[in-house]
Write a structure and sequence with these properties.
With about 260 residues, this protein is mainly α. Helices cover about 75% and strands about 10% of the residues. It is built from four helices and two strands, in the order ααββαα. Strand 1 and strand 2 form a beta hairpin. The protein is rod-shaped, with a radius of gyration of 49 Å.
Length: about 260
C-alpha cells in the first residue's frame, strides 16, 4: 500500500501543523533506528548462517564417526552392549542449559552443553570390548555437542528471520506510508494556511479601500459644508445672493490656482 497520494483528515491550523511536524520528526527518527536495527540483525543473520553451514558439514563427519564407533563396539563387545551400558549409567553427565542473548533488542535463545559429574562405567565392557565402548561414548559425546550447537544456531536463525521480517515491514510502512502521508498533510495544511493568509490580505485591502473612500466622502462633505458657510457669510456681508457668492468664491479659487 502506498501513501503517496493520501493525507490525514485534520483541520488546517497552525497548532495541527506543529503536531504533524513533530510526528514527522518522530517517524523519521524511528525509521532511521529501525533501519539500523534491520542492518544489525541482517549482519548477525548472515554470521549465523555461515556457522550453520560449517556446523552441518562437521556434524556429518561426527555422526559418521560415532556410527562407525558404535559398530566397532558391537562387533567387539557383542550385540547386547546396550543392557550392559544401562546397568552402569545412573545419571547423565552431559546436560544442556538454555539462556538468552540480546542482539539489537531481539532475544535469541542459546543452548550450552556442560559436563556434570563422571560416569561410573569402570565395569562397562569389563569382559570384552571396554576400550571400544569408551571410544564409542567419546564419539557420541562429540556428536551431541555438535547437535546442541546446531540446535542453538538453528533456533537463533529462525528467531532472527522472524524479527528481520517484522522490522523490514515496519521500515517499509514508515518509509512508504506514514512519512509520505505526514508530508502530504503538512503540504496540505501549508497550502490552506497560505490561502487563508491571501484571503485575509485581500479582505484587509478591501476594508482599507472602503475606509479610504469613506474618509474622502466625509472630507468632501465637510469641505462643501464649509464652502457653504463661507458663501452664506459673504452673501450676508455684501448683500448678494447665495449663488452669486458661491460663484465669486469659485472664481477666486480658480484665480489662486492660476497664480500658483
Amino acid at each position: 500500500m502506498s501513501g503517496s497520494g493520501q493525507r490525514l483528515n485534520v483541520v488546517p491550523t497552525v497548532t495541527v501543523l506543529g503536531v504533524v511536524k513533530a510526528r514527522l520528526v518522530g517517524a523519521t527518527r524511528g525509521h532511521a533506528l529501525l533501519k539500523k536495527k534491520s542492518d544489525a540483525l541482517t549482519v548477525q543473520f548472515r554470521q549465523i548462517l555461515k556457522k550453520i553451514v560449517s556446523t552441518k558439514e562437521s556434524m556429518g563427519d561426527k555422526m559418521k564417526a560415532s556410527s562407525f564407533a558404535l559398530t566397532e563396539a558391537k562387533y567387539v563387545a557383542g550385540e547386547n552392549i546396550k543392557h550392559t551400558v544401562l546397568e552402569n549409567v545412573q545419571t547423565a553427565t552431559l546436560k544442556v542449559r538454555s539462556r538468552q542473548e540480546n542482539v539489537a533488542g531481539v532475544k535469541l535463545p542459546k543452548f550450552d552443553y556442560f559436563h556434570e559429574g563422571e560416569t561410573k562405567n569402570d565395569l562397562t565392557g569389563l569382559a570384552r570390548g571396554g576400550q571400544q565402548v569408551q571410544a564409542c561414548r567419546a564419539a557420541y559425546v562429540k556428536a551431541i555437542e555438535v547437535l546442541v550447537e546446531l540446535a542453538s544456531l538453528q533456533t537463533s536463525f529462525m528467531t532472527l528471520d522472524t524479527a528481520i521480517k517484522t522490522t523490514n515491514r515496519r521500515v517499509n510502512a514508515l518509509e512508504n506510508v506514514v512519512k509520505p502521508r505526514l508530508e502530504n498533510t503538512i503540504t496540505y495544511i501549508k497550502g490552506e494556511l497560505d490561502e487563508l493568509e491571501r484571503e485575509d490580505f485581500f479582505r484587509l485591502k478591501k476594508i482599507q479601500g472602503f475606509k479610504k473612500r469613506e474618509i474622502e466622502r466625509q472630507l468632501a462633505a465637510a469641505k462643501q459644508f464649509a464652502e457653504g458657510q463661507v458663501a452664506e457669510k459673504v452673501s450676508l456681508q455684501k448683500g448678494i445672493s447665495l449663488n452669486s457668492a458661491q460663484n465669486m468664491l469659485s472664481a477666486s479659487e480658480k484665480d489662486e490656482d492660476i497664480i500658483f
